[in-house]
Amino acid sequence: MKKKSMEELQRLSCEEYHKVAKLPIVVVLDDVRSLNNIGSMFRTADAFLIEKIYLCGITATPPSPEIHKTALGAEDSVEWEYVTDAVSLVDRLKSEGYTVCAIEQVNGSVNMLDFAVDKEKKYVVILGNEVKGVNQEVVDKVDYCIELPQYGTKHSLNVSITAGIVMWHFFTALK
After folding, report:
1. pTM tops 0.85
2. What's the structural domain count of the chain?
3. Is residue 88 part of a domain?
4. Nearest CA to 17 among 43, 63, 49, 54?
5. What are the E-state strand segments in the chain?
6. How does pLDDT run across 49-93, given as a tens digit for each residue?
């Protein structure tokens, strides 16, 4: 086997990417503190044609050398917006017809393996702070809390790894 060249990969330019139809998924980063995690989530959002990323609370915004280090330019291709308050953002997105899902371990959460993505709906996926998770005030407003099954000794995954798994789950269901 031979690794593919950049020409063989046929990647879109940033301009072409902006014109391509996106999946009806927006990602909300609720107080994510690591700039490397933020950059990684931009890069994953680019790969899976996510509509938009909202950066809330203490979540840093581009331009930033630290975000760029892991985003590798995806902060320029993926549409994004900074919103101070994630709670009011959730209210707004619900009024726009989105089904809002927090990725969080709560009583009554739905195992991601059991969460059926409806192709007729548009979704919000909320990911939270690396230590505290999604703020409780946000959790109180969502339609679903989705939990990733885990079988080892740790109770959580890195937020950017979680984001990749969740975006892939939605991508495969909607693409």
Report:
1. yes
2. 1
3. yes
4. 49
5. 23-30, 50-56, 80-83, 98-103, 110-111, 122-128, 144-147
6. 999 999 999 999 999 999 999 999 999 999 999 999 999 999 999
